[in-house]
């Protein structure tokens, strides 16, 4: 390729790249010229000018681009993308063959060798999520490569690069024949109604598959369940199908009410026998305490950051407080499923929040199970911060 832009890394950054680190960090290129436009191909060299890697220029969070290959002779063209997509598909063969699960991730950014893009599968439909202008620059080549690898009903896309990862409002349909929504997908036999052309979120977070399965299989039978930050009630549906006596779903977004009714309905659950509450979770905790309500199982799955009228919640600062509230309304021998998708802290730190919450409350606990991302959300040891999900099943005394 003739139009590669050369980036020179300092010794520390060069060593990281030699060891396999896939992100080109902002700080590493502070004092040098950058390409005029995102999507430029980069040749990354060390201080002596020796070749380290090829990558692309695309601004996303802490990085200004991703490494695509450490092979000097590798040409970044359609065939390159075909190879990467093929490799990713072959790693998901088991999921494609599993008749009980028709929604999962088929391509997970740098974990599958191309940072900045994810591809999810929904029963014959695919959703591409683009995280920078830079990677979107390659969209024609990537779609052509994708068509070469697989057939599909249709492709939809989410462009999350307006400002700081925000979603670009658009018609998300790309090609194929348009779907009818809601589309019904399955996950270990649980149904979910998804909408691929209605904003950035489709109705279910696929990274919680293992957690929903555990809640369904092992933690729900005969239990009262409180699902906080419930969104479309995916955890509530899993619990109800798993034999919960009753579920209570709490979310402050008005749309969560019809969405949760729909999620119960597509699973044949009588939603009128369940509680669906549109309320700030923190107000709900006060209400529950006042009314002496207690739950056997509480799911905490807040966003990393959220602002409501009264509260600003940041997982990194406020998780301990959230846990304390939950502990107070958990039955004896109850379970709290504490989840976070914040990449701002590690599992170790998360366990520290749990320890601190219980210390302040004076109740005893043990962590019965823990989860991070499932295999289809492929990550590598070279980029541990890519494995953002942390879930602990906390067994109370
Ligand atoms: N647990 C959900 C995903 C949560 S998404 C699932 O498994 O599908 C985060 C949700 O938190 C959003 O639906 C948002 O409306 C809700 N939310 C944010 N702040 C909140 C608050 N203070 N009280 C209640 N819900 C809140």
Overview features:
21 strands; globular; alpha/beta; seven-stranded mixed β-sheet; about 400 residues; Rossmann fold; Transcription Regulator spoIIAA; Archaeosine Trna-guanine Transglycosylase, Chain: A, domain 4; 11 helices; binds S-adenosyl-L-homocysteine
From the structure provided, what is the oligomeric state, counting identical versus distinct chains?
Answer: single chain
| Number of β-strand runs | 21
Number of domains: 3
Alpha-carbon Rg, integer: 23 Å
The ligands found in this model are: S-adenosyl-L-homocysteine
> Helix content range of the residues, please?
25-40%
How many helical stretches? Answer: 11
- As a percent range, the share of strand residues is 25-35%
Q: What ranges have pLDDT less than 50 throughout 5 or more consecutive residues?
A: none
Report the top-level CATH class of the largest domain. Alpha Beta
